[in-house]
Amino acid sequence: MALVFLITLIALPVMEIAVFIEAGDRIGLWPTVGAILATAVIGLAIIRMQGLAILARMQDNLRAERFPGTELFDGACLLVAGACLITPGFITDSIGVLLLIVPLRRGIGRLLWRYAEARGYTMRTGDPDGDVIIDVEYDDVTDRARRDGDAAPDGNRLTGPKSNDNEPPR
């Protein structure tokens, strides 16, 4: 993996320079510079709009007590897209624009999820309805401790039920 990163780190700038030279020969210096600046400005405006929409969906999911996995992945893709669009170059701009296309981003997410599942990096919990199931065994000692007057784990004496003692926190 480190070798792939090193090769990319060396090859990408060389390819970007080659594309700059070719674009400068075909359309001229200033149109090439203008195209680089225009893709950065337009791309960042699109990232801002999509980012705000993703943030709103993430907040909705958190309010509904659902894990915002898709939104987190979309946010990570937007972060990479922003870095690619800010970096001068046609190749990095192309990668950034591709990451802004939602159906393509969903496809990449599915591929990465399948890759992670195949390697055992994921764990599914719950039933088909999406309810989380936690299978545990426990021994409730609260009533026995109150009856015997024993101390609770925090050191307080358990002398009787307190109001809302048995209700789960909300």
Question: How is the topology of this model organized?
Answer:
Elements: H1 2-27, H2 29-63, H3 69-86, H4 90-100, H5 102-118, H6 142-148
How does this model look, in words?
This protein has a domain at 15-118. It is elongated, with a radius of gyration of 27 Å. It has helices at residues 2-27, 29-63, 69-86, 90-100, 102-118, 142-148. The two termini are 45 Å apart. It has six helices and no strands.
Mean pLDDT: 81
Question: In terms of per-residue confidence, which ranges show pLDDT below 50 for 5 or more consecutive residues?
Answer: none
H-E string: HHHHHH
Radius of gyration: 27 Å
Got a strand count?
Answer: 0
Contiguous helical run count: 6
Question: Hey, roughly how much beta strand do the residues contain?
Answer: under 5%
Largest sheet: none
Structural class call reads mainly alpha
Shape: elongated
Task: Measure the end-to-end span.
Answer: 45 Å
* Amount of helix: 55-70%
